[in-house]
Specification:
With about 375 residues, the chain is mainly alpha-helical. It is built from 15 helices and 13 strands.
């Protein structure tokens, strides 16, 4: 195995462990093709126009670069240089901190600050100051994903800087975002960011990042309320997991039910789901081994594609990618819109007929660098064992 797992920390059956090792090796080979040496940036995506087309680079993303740095932190130095254009993680985080004056997005700044804290970077105070400047209005609505990253970043920075006032406000904002008595998190911390017809709809990312952030918050300073909230959310998404191990995409934050399951994203199956659930277990929560293993098995045997003639494999080792998702192929995401509106007007309802018309048989031939960054972060993290 190229990346032998710490089986005491991450108990998996042999097939799941072999798959994780295989995916980590693929990511190590694939990330250099996502790096732009001319600008020391990561691309936004590699995408192929057809099944026989090699994926090509498109766009750039500071956010994805920071996530890759967070994951590459757990690689050896030679492997860090392999995926970061010759830089170590510490050197690459210096580049990211240098870009902070141009960063206007709260989530991007939080991820850079998190990477700075994780590497114990000398410029951590500068990164925290930039984060604070973008998060100075505690009453301003934020997307829950980005609010969670703020909590995770400040929890990581706690041993090295006085962030308690900022962290307390960020913690309360995240915990208070939920509907009363509900386990799942919404898409935004308060009203003002979303149109009325989808204000109730939250996505899978809105669940896993709060689970992770609150688990890490509890580990950093004993916060039972944070641990309870993370556990309740994790338990609920596991209860809702699909028969084929699918982590579903859209939820109703008012009812804790699924609004629309598709797309099923590969990164959720191999990285984001396991990452959050493992962090929660390590913070004192229950074991989620079985749903993690079910989610991993979907990658090599997607229930949606069984028996479909000419169906592609999700793993494309020759191209250094895993295809991004299985989806319905419906124009303008009509099923998502229809089910979102139906559930808004009648909670728990879905638009009749759309599941028969638009079946999830399409594969998105795209792969983004953050998918591999979180893969490394989920499975190679040795923070607890060290």
């Amino acid at each position: 195995m190229v990346f032998p797992l710490d089986t005491a920390r991450v108990p998996l059956d042999a097939d799941a462990a072999e798959l994780v090792d295989r995916l980590c090796a693929l990511a190590l080979d694939g990330l250099p093709a996502m790096y732009r040496a001319d600008s020391d940036e990561f691309v936004f995506t590699r995408a192929a126009a057809g099944a026989t087309t090699r994926p090509e680079q498109r766009g750039t993303s500071t956010r994805y670069a920071a996530i890759v740095a967070l994951g590459a932190h757990w690689l050896g130095v030679d492997q860090q240089r392999q995926v970061l254009g010759g830089h170590t993680v510490a050197e690459y985080v210096s580049l990211l901190i240098g870009r902070l004056p141009r960063v206007r997005n709260l989530g991007d700044a939080a991820l850079i600050a998190w990477a700075a804290a994780q590497t114990k970077h000398d410029d951590l105070p500068r990164a925290l100051a930039a984060l604070k400047a973008l998060d100075s209005d505690a009453g301003k609505p934020q997307y829950v994903v980005e609010a969670a990253w703020v909590v995770a970043a400040l929890a990581a920075a706690r041993p090295y800087a006085d962030v308690e006032a900022h962290l307390a406000a960020a913690r309360d904002r995240l915990l208070d975002s939920r509907h009363s008595g509900r386990a799942l998190f919404p898409h935004a911390t308060r009203a003002g960011l979303l149109p009325w017809y989808r204000s109730h709809v939250a996505c899978y990312a809105d669940q896993v990042y709060p689970i992770q952030a609150l688990a890490r918050l509890h580990r950093s300073g004993d916060d039972p309320a944070a641990l309870r909230a993370a556990t309740a959310c994790a338990d609920r998404i596991c209860e809702l997991q699909g028969a084929g191990g699918q982590w579903w995409w859209h939820y109703d934050a008012r009812t804790d039910k699924v609004v629309e399951g598709y797309p099923v994203y590969t990164v959720h199956q191999h990285a984001m789901g396991p990452m959050a659930l493992l962090d929660l277990t390590e913070a004192g929560g229950p074991s989620y081994r079985e749903p993690i293993e079910r989610g991993l098995r979907w990658i090599t045997d997607p229930l949606e594609l069984r028996g479909v003639e000419g169906a592609e494999d999700i793993i494309r080792a020759a191209d250094g990618v895993t295809w991004r998702k299985v989806y319905r192929g419906d124009p303008r995401k009509v099923v998502r819109a229809a089910n979102g509106l139906a559930s808004k007007l009648l909670p728990g309802r879905q638009m009749p007929g759309v599941n028969r018309i638009y079946k999830p048989l399409a594969v998105d031939r795209e792969c983004r660098p953050y998918e591999f960054g979180w893969l490394f972060f989920a499975w190679l993290n040795r923070e607890v064992a060290s």
